[in-house]
Specification:
about 90 residues; Cysteine Rich Protein; two-stranded antiparallel sheet; two-stranded antiparallel ribbon; 4 strands
Length: about 90
């Protein structure tokens, strides 16, 4: 007997499709974006599974997710992903 291989959320079959494996379950990319993806602190949009995601612990030590392209200097807009930087008053 063949075990069913469906999305945890929408129950669509995942054979021959891209999917995300999280723990003991699988979900399609559409459901991942809707139910599982982190939300970027800057643009407030889901961070897609194929996007570069970075995390920054703010001054209260909460782990904040960001799109790599959204994590920029508030003064000059230079991208900070992979760069050394200093936070001043949590900016």
């Amino acid at each position: 007997m063949v075990e069913k291989f469906d999305c945890l959320y929408c129950r669509d079959p995942l054979q021959r499709k891209k999917y995300v494996h999280k723990g003991d379950y699988h979900c399609c990319l559409k459901c991942f974006d809707k139910f599982c993806a982190n939300i970027c602190m800057e643009c407030c949009k889901p961070i897609h599974v194929d996007s570069k995601e970075m995390h920054y612990k703010n001054f209260t030590y909460q782990d904040e997710p960001w799109h790599a392209e959204c994590f920029v200097c508030v003064t000059c807009s230079k991208k900070l992903a992979g760069q050394r930087f200093t936070a001043v008053e949590d900016q």
